[in-house]
Amino acid sequence: MEYADLNLSHIISGELGHVRVRQHVNPLSSSFSVPARIPDWKEVFRDPTLPLMVDIGSGSGRFLIWLAKRNRNIGNYLGIEIRQKLVNRAEHWIKELALDNLHFLFANATVSFRQLVVGYPGPLMFVSILCPDPHFKKRHHKRRVVQKPLVDSIINNLAPGGKVFVQSDVLEVALDMRNQFDAESDMLRHIDETDLSMLCDKDGWLLNNPMGIRTEREIHAEFEGAKIYRRLYQKRTS
User: Fold this and answer.
1) Could you tell me which CATH number the domain at 48-235 has?
2) Average pLDDT over residues 209-221
3) Burial class (CB in 10 A: 0-12, 13-18, 19+), 30
4) Distance of alpha carbon 212 from alpha carbon 138, whole angstroms
5) Does the record bear tRNA processing in its keywords (predicted)?
């Protein structure tokens, strides 16, 4: 119901019909090791100089579609998703809604994030990693999306004042992401240090979602009674 006003088509012809995908994939597989082709940003976005938000692991895409529709002249949105079928369907919805500030890419963020954002003409102002695949088994932790190289790429390419938002309904995963971004305190500050209106619980997790809309995973997890663990960082301006 939170996405009802998007009026997205449920019946799509051809292969894009009832999209069934694997919930978890191995990003270390050789099939995901090829860097994504860099788009011609002038063809992708009406104004490629607008501030950019990148959602790593964009899933179905509804979360970014909702944001892009409400901020058509304010910013551009890029969804990076490792499951091709979800990207295909999301691109169909973009055409359906005639959104010229949103694009989805089939890519492995670990491999392609830096090269995708380094050539973007405008400033990278926001990066989100929301409820990523947990890869629970210890031997699979190396498959988790938040690894030191990606953290470094995000921080190095984020514009001063830009933000990084991470969240998970799995405490272990949330702590892992938190520890990695907290370790970059010389470059990042948590948002409650710069904005006193952003309240945290006693453990330092944000009490409220700052985005204005929940992701589908977030909705499902909270419906099941799970807690969402959130952190929002801002890059230092000096």
Assistant:
1) 3.40.50.150
2) 94
3) exposed
4) 34
5) yes
Q: Percentage of the chain surpassing pLDDT 90?
A: 77
Average pLDDT over residues 3-19: 66
Distance CA 175, CA 181 (A): 10
Asked whether 105 and 45 are in contact (CB, 8 A), the reply is no
Domain ranges for the chain:
48-235
Contact 164, 154 (CB under 8 A): yes
Residue 115 token pair: 């090269």
From 55, 133, 169, 176, active-site residue: 133
Do residues 181 and 238 make contact, with C-beta atoms less than 8 angstroms apart? no
- Find all residues with CB under 8 Å of 158, minimum gap 6, and list them: 124, 125, 127, 164, 235
Name the nearest CA neighbour of 170 among 203, 133, 205, 122: 133
Greatest CA separation for the chain = 52
Buried b (16+ CB within 10 A) or exposed e, 17-26: eeeeeeeeee
State yes or no: is 201 an active-site residue.
Answer: no
